[in-house]
Design goal:
about 350 residues; alpha/beta; Rossmann fold; 2 domains; 10 strands
Length: about 350
């Protein structure tokens, strides 16, 4: 299916004002990749797919929501947008804003954003400002600023972000012919899990396709929804979900409860192990993107979940190139050989 952008593809299903001016980079239509070998590793007897959102234009799922948020703002004649970000939102906001002829301002927590993501925001022309504080501090600041100034907030508190992100649920249903039995995905600021549940419920209302159970997964060092209270200093190698006060936390808990699913936490070691397992299947994701599958593996191997005969979709939210430093840090140095054929043959054979 050729991409025409999520707005044109699903316009009739989106709550988008008539005044909106479509700003698109032809996002969406990301592949649903079968993972039969990984399913066998996890016990077998079920179908497993990765919804690889890292193949969106700026390398993450954020583009789905950003096309709608920026299109709405452009229709109102907005000249500047602002967001707080751990990286992926920054790059997406900057790309779509510059596409629309707008100025983008990005506030990030100092030293807590992967270089690949920061580079994207800068390349697209955003004004990037680091603060001494966490993502949650940055979000508080941009929210207050957007209330005082004529500048549009494009974090997931913006309802149009969720309208765009829910289109991934539509695509999964369209590709499979129905909703999966289980959906597992990372949870950071909790906008994505909220949007998926919105999308599946809407699709269910239109086509009576059934609803998935949702497994939302946080990093153990940044798991406020699991702990039941904010985490003041969240820490995890999975920078995209290093958030201690999720803006959509209540909606995320509601999605898990209504779907008869759960929200759980996994360790950084489990996340990195699953990142390597996915790469062995040909799907390279940033660490946070492996959290959903790491949670699934945790539950299956502990005997706490039975998915035999079921279809399971794991949402992989961002490409591995977003955070290559993680791989570089732990990989062995490449072997160095003399530039001759015999040495090469000896090393390979």
């Amino acid at each position: 299916m050729a991409s025409i952008g999520v707005i044109d593809h699903y316009r009739s299903l989106l709550e988008l004002p008539a005044y909106a001016r479509t700003v698109t980079l032809l996002e969406g239509s990301t592949p649903l990749i079968p993972l039969p070998a990984l399913a066998e590793e996890l016990g077998g007897g079920f179908e497993l797919f990765a919804k690889f959102e890292g193949l969106n234009p700026t390398g993450s799922f954020k583009d789905r929501g950003m096309t709608v948020a920026i299109s709405e703002a452009a229709g109102r004649g907005v000249k500047a947008v602002i967001c707080a970000s751990t990286g992926n939102t920054a790059a997406s906001a900057a790309a779509y804003a510059t596409r629309a002829g707008m100025r983008a301002v990005v506030i990030i927590p100092e030293g807590k954003v992967a270089a690949g993501k920061l580079a994207g925001a800068v390349a697209y022309g955003a004004q990037v400002i680091q603060i001494h504080g966490s993502f949650d501090d940055a979000l508080t600041l941009v929210l207050r600023l957007s209330e005082r100034q004529s500048i549009a907030l494009v974090n997931s508190l913006n309802p149009y972000r969720l309208e765009g992100q829910k289109t991934a649920a539509f695509e999964i249903c369209d590709d499979l012919g129905a909703a999966p039995d289980w959906l597992c995905l990372p949870v950071g600021n909790a906008g994505n899990i909220t949007a998926y549940w919105m999308g599946f419920r809407q699709y269910h209302g239109l086509k009576s396709s059934g609803l998935p159970r949702i497994l939302g997964v946080q990093a153990a060092g940044s798991a406020p929804l699991v702990l039941g209270h904010p985490v003041e200093k969240p820490e995890t190698i999975a920078t995209a979900i290093r958030i201690g006060r999720p803006a959509r936390g209540e909606q995320a808990l509601q999605a898990a409860e209504e779907s008869h699913g759960q929200i759980m936490a996994v360790t950084d070691d489990e996340i990195l192990a699953m990142q390597h397992r996915l790469a062995a299947s040909g799907v390279w994701v940033e660490p946070a993107s492996a959290a959903g599958l790491a949670g699934l593996a945790n539950q299956l191997l502990a005997g706490k979940l039975d998915v035999r005969g079921k279809r399971v979709v794991a949402v992989c939210t961002g490409h591995g190139l977003k955070d290559p430093d993680i791989i570089v840090k732990y990989m062995p140095a490449p072997r160095v050989l003399e530039a001759n054929l015999s040495a090469l043959e000896e090393a390979i054979l």
